Amino acid sequence: MPGTPDIEVVVFDVLGTLVDEPSGLRAAIREAVPGAGDELLELWQEHIEREQDRIGRGERAYATSEVLDTEAARLVAGRAGVTDPAVVARLATAGQRLPAWADSVAGLERLSRRFPVVALSNASHAALLRLNAHAGLRWHQALSSEDVRAYKPAPEIYQHAIDTAGCAPDRVLMVAAHAWDLRGAQAKGMRTAYVHRPVGDPPSEGDAFDLRVDGLDELIAALA
């Protein structure tokens, strides 16, 4: 794929791929609960994963990321004995204050000079608006699971990205740090690029993604 001229649109996952989600959540939890260990972070992450899976299986009606984050914040606060409503309310917005990886802002800026760049995230539109402002991320367009009321890796969210791109799936490149995300995109005919992040889901031996890169600089070089 390096040097391939047929990519028209680049689509990025956000959480974990362009921002360091665990570090941001950990910092917010420790602000609410000084000295907290990672067991509270794990409680938060397990709740989000479980509830998104339940929604995907049809066991729960779709709820936005803001609703799930509020639930997670209340679970964490309950476990830690935090009762101040203002502290719990701020904790519920932790997902809107995640730090960008070191190469994310400049990498997006460089890519956006050559390609339409789209965000495709499980975060709600309101959360994305604030997260992008906090982390300094800039897009030509931001798409949310909220648009189709389904969380990745549901096929309809990738189809939403393809429809928005307005071109054939094999001219749309999905970039993510999560192999499960790329498998979902691949199943809809999109091209795929795995970018290594410390908190991602690495490819298995059976994965055949178009690109595997260590960061956005390497991705840009491959697309040049």
Automatic annotation (TrEMBL):
Q: Which domain of life is it from?
A: Bacteria
| The keyword Hydrolase belongs to this UniProt entry's keyword annotation | yes
For whether the record's keyword set contains Magnesium, the answer is: no
Could you list this entry's UniProt keywords, alphabetically sorted: Hydrolase
Which InterPro entries has this protein been placed in? 2-HAD (IPR006328), HAD-like_sf (IPR036412), HAD-SF_hydro_IA (IPR006439), HAD_sf (IPR023214), PGP-like_dom2 (IPR023198), S-2-haloacid_dehalogenase (IPR051540)
| Family from the record | Belongs to the HAD-like hydrolase superfamily. S-2-haloalkanoic acid dehalogenase family.
Q: What is the name of the protein in this document?
A: Haloacid dehalogenase
Lineage of origin: Bacteria, Bacillati, Actinomycetota, Actinomycetes, Pseudonocardiales
